[in-house]
Amino acid sequence: MIDMKKILIADDHAIFREGLKQIIAKTVGMVVAGEAVNGQEVLREVRENDYDMVILDISMPGRSGLDVLAEIKSLKPKLPVLILSMHPEEQYAVRALRTGAAGYVTKGSPPQELVEALEKVAFGKKYVSPSLAETLASNLGHPGQELPHMELSNREYQVLCLIASGKPVGKIAAELSLSVKTISTYRAHILRKMNMKNNAELTRYAIQNQLI
C-alpha cells in the first residue's frame, strides 16, 4: 500500500482549490487532507494536524502569506511549503525562498509544471523553474549588493508592490484587510527605508527593478 502524502491547501478561492484538488487526485501518492482560507486557519491546521506538505498562496485575507510561511517554518521547520501564487516570480519568488519555501510556482503555470513541483517538494526536494534558477545564480554572483527593497519586511514589500501597481491606499487596505491608517504607516516606513519622497519614485523604482 502506498504511503500517501497528506497535503494542506491554503487559498481563499474555492474554485481554485477545487481545481487544485483535481490535479492532486491524479498525482500518485498524494491526498488533500485539509483546506484553509486565511493565515489564521493555516496556522491552526499546521499546529493541530500532521501534514507532509503545505501549498500556500501569498495573497490571502489578513496576514501576508510570507509572514504565514515564516511562522510555519518556526512551528515545524521540516514541513515543506510550496508557494502557489498569482504573482510573477520576479515579484516574490526569491523572497519566498529566503523565508523558507521549498518551491515557487505561479498560478498561470501549466498543470505539468505544478505536478513536477508537487512531486519534488513532497519528497524533500526543492523546486525552482529554469528562469528562477537563473535569477538565483545571478544574485549569488553579486554578494553584498542588496537592493533597497530587500531591506523591507514582507508586509512592507507587499504594500510597495501594490502602491507601485497604482492602487490607492483605500483599495490596498481593503485587499489586505487592514485599516487605511495602517497602510499609510507602512507607506511612511517604506519611503523612509528606501530614501524616497513619494509614490512616483516608488513606482519608478519598482518598474526599473521589475517588481511589477
Concise synopsis of the structure shown:
With 212 residues, the chain is an alpha/beta fold.
Topology of helices and strands:
Layout: E1 5-10, H1 14-25, E2 30-36, H2 39-48, E3 53-56, H3 65-75, E4 81-85, H4 89-99, E5 103-106, H5 111-122, H6 130-140, H7 154-164, H8 169-176, H9 180-194, H10 199-208
Parallel strand pairs: 1-2, 1-3, 3-4, 4-5
Characterization of this structure:
With 212 residues, the chain is α/β, with parallel strands linked by helices. The protein folds into two domains: 5-140, 3-Layer(aba) Sandwich (Rossmann fold), CATH 3.40.50.2300; 148-208, Orthogonal Bundle (Arc Repressor Mutant, subunit A), CATH 1.10.10.10. It is 52% helix and 12% strand. The chain has ten helices and five strands; from the N terminus they run E-H-E-H-E-H-E-H-E-H-H-H-H-H-H. The protein has helices at residues 14-25, 39-48, 65-75, 89-99, 111-122, 130-140, 154-164, 169-176, 180-194, 199-208, and strands at residues 5-10, 30-36, 53-56, 81-85, 103-106. The protein has a five-stranded parallel β-sheet, sandwiched between helices. Strand 1, helix 1 and strand 2 (30-36) form a beta-alpha-beta unit. Helix 8 (169-176) crosses helix 9 (180-194).
What's the shape?
Answer: globular
CATH-derived architecture of the largest domain:
3-Layer(aba) Sandwich
Share of residues in strands: 5-15%
Give the CATH superfamily of the largest domain: Response regulator
Number of strands: 5
Q: Helical percent range? A: 40-55%
Report the uncertain regions: none
Rg, Cα atoms, Å: 18 Å
- CATH hierarchy, class of the largest domain: Alpha Beta
Please describe the biggest sheet, giving its number of strands, its sense, and whether it closes into a barrel: 5 strands, parallel
CATH topology of the largest domain: Rossmann fold
Number of helices: 10
Which sequence of SSEs, written as H and E, runs from N to C?
A: EHEHEHEHEHHHHHH
Provide the residue-averaged pLDDT: 87
Distance between the termini: 47 Å
Class by alpha and beta content: alpha/beta
